[in-house]
Amino acid sequence: MHAKASSILLIVGGGIAAYKSLELIRLLRGAGMEVRVVLTKAGAQFVTPLSLASLSGNKVYEDLFSLTDETEMGHIELSRQADAIVIAPATADLLAKAANGLANDLASTLLLASDKAALAAPAMNWRMWTHPATRRNVDVLRGYGMAFVGPNEGPMACGESGPGRMAEPEEIFAALRARLADRPKTLAGRKVVITAGPTHEPIDPVRYIANRSSGKQGYALAEVARDAGAEVVLVSGPVNLPPPAGVRLISVETARQMAEAVESTLPCDIFIAAAAVADWRTEADAAQKIKKGFDGPPALKMVENPDILASIARHGANRPRLVIGFAAETENVVAHARAKLAKKGCDLIVANDVGEGTGVMGGSENAVVLITPDGEQAWPRLAKDEVARRLVAHFAQMYAAEEERGGA
Ligand code: C5P
């Protein structure tokens, strides 16, 4: 039986590098992939719809409001049908639109309407690429799961030289192949429960205690575990992230609600505690806003919150086969994480340094150390979605080993 050929949606933006996208189409088709091209208005200044259509063997889509296109294939369908989206060349303008959720032409609308992370091959003048606005847009898009290939350094059409040349078609093709191959269904049939984000512990109806967790790492894990075929439940504290498609999301505020929500999802096969749960809450949650009084600031008495990770790891009959914890430390990362592994009774601790200046909390990158009772391994600093991909592959391997040891 032949596996279904991958279907690629290629967005061609406006840049001199657009001519290289013709070669990219040839490579994709050569590998048996189906290619549909969306050409932006600016892109059409550099390559013609006719060359793109001839090479892709499909009609080229240019217009958001084309009734003919809509009757043939609605624009939402166009992105839903694709296994992957590639943007080449990805101009500064396209990246800015995607980072800000603009949807004023077909390409930007498709990117906003899609639940697939795109692969972008940026091409622009090096000053545009290094401008803080583009840096911020790239960071935001990485956080949404977009992957980047290039740009490369070298001479550019404008006569200047620097980072901004679009990656070569072969490089884009290889990056795409790696992304598609990266998704073996290693967790098919498994139920994975993940906690993510901070918790908010109320002081009174308007004030709360929180922390700087963005939830990015937990959300990225949920998406990768879903792509690996797992049934995923994401128990999330308050975050500013879109709910991942195809994942059951339970939104909570406090540690106690999170603990209760996690309990309600058992049994599961893998539990991943990626949330930054508040260790303490105030003993009394005032029913009314605490007033500024004459007797000075109020003294808040703190009490301990339930430790979700420790209670799931010691759950007796319902203990998931694999229980994973995270440790955000600001000093002696490995030593503290190792102590936590024993204290919590989990199988693996993913430790990271969130100390000042590391930019990990709320940022898009993470450098982790994996700690098990048998040893440890340190990984290089990587984008959080890449960390998520590697972690899920690692968890799947551990799960399979545990299963073999313990019997199915
Ligand atoms: O003790 P600490 O908060 O550093 O431990 C971190 C690990 O424990 C994380 O995996 C976190 O999600 C989990 N945790 C928990 N419930 C708590 C506190 C931490 O699940 N109340």
UniProtKB/TrEMBL annotation:
EC number: 4.1.1.36, 6.3.2.5
Annotated residues for binding of CTP: 279, 289, 306-309, 326, 340, 344
Active site: 158
Chain segments carrying region Phosphopantothenate--cysteine ligase: 192-408
One GO cellular component, as annotated: phosphopantothenoylcysteine decarboxylase complex
Flavoprotein domain: residues covered: 7-177
GO MF term list: FMN binding; metal ion binding; phosphopantothenate--cysteine ligase activity; phosphopantothenoylcysteine decarboxylase activity
Highest taxon listed in the record's lineage: Bacteria
Catalysed reactions, semicolon-separated: N-[(R)-4-phosphopantothenoyl]-L-cysteine + H(+) = (R)-4'-phosphopantetheine + CO2; (R)-4'-phosphopantothenate + L-cysteine + CTP = N-[(R)-4-phosphopantothenoyl]-L-cysteine + CMP + diphosphate + H(+)
Cofactor(s) in the UniProt record: Mg(2+); FMN
HAMAP family with a match to the protein in the record: CoaBC (MF_02225)
Name of the protein in question: Coenzyme A biosynthesis bifunctional protein CoaBC
Phylogenetic placement of the source organism: Bacteria, Pseudomonadati, Pseudomonadota, Alphaproteobacteria, Hyphomicrobiales
